[in-house]
Amino acid sequence: MNKTKKRIYISTPEYANKLCGICTPYTKNFDIDIVKGRCILDASSILGILSMLGKEVYIFPNTENSILIKELFNKIDSI
Predict the structure, then answer these.
(1) Model's pTM, two decimal places?
(2) Could you tell me which of 17, 35, 37, 57 has the fewest CB atoms within 10 Å of its CB?
(3) How far is CA 2 from CA 61, 63, 64, 67, in A?
(4) Going along 17-54, which residue ranges are E strands?
C-alpha cells in the first residue's frame, strides 16, 4: 500500500462538497481514505467529510499510481 498522504483542513461545507466531488471519480479505480486519529472515512462520502468539518485530516489514496496521486493532490490544492 502506498503511504503517500496529504494534510488538509476542512473549513466549510462548500470545501467539503468540492472535496467529495473531486475524490468521487477516482474511487472507481481505488479507495481514498480520510483519516483523523483512529477514524477512517471514505472520501466519496459527503456525510463522512462533513463530520470532519473544522478539523485537520489526512487524505490517503490507496494506489501505487503516482501520476493519479499527483493529479488528485493538484485538484485538491485548487479548491
Answers:
(1) 0.93
(2) 37
(3) 8, 6, 6, 13
(4) 32-36, 39-42
Q: Which residues are CB-neighbours of 62 under 8 A, at least 6 positions away? A: 1, 2, 30, 31, 32, 33
What pLDDT, in 10s, does the model give residues 8-66?
Answer: 999 999 999 999 999 999 999 999 999 999 999 999 999 999 999 999 999 999 999 99
C-alpha cell at 1: 500500500
Judging by DSSP bridges, how do beta strands 6-10 and 55-61 pair with one another? antiparallel
Q: What would the grid cell of residue 79 be?
A: 479548491
Helix (H, G, I), strand (E, B) or coil at 36: strand
**For residues 21 and 45, what is the distance between their CA atoms, to the nearest angstrom?**
10
- What is the distance of C-alpha 7 from the center of its chain? 9
Distance CA 36, CA 15 (A): 17
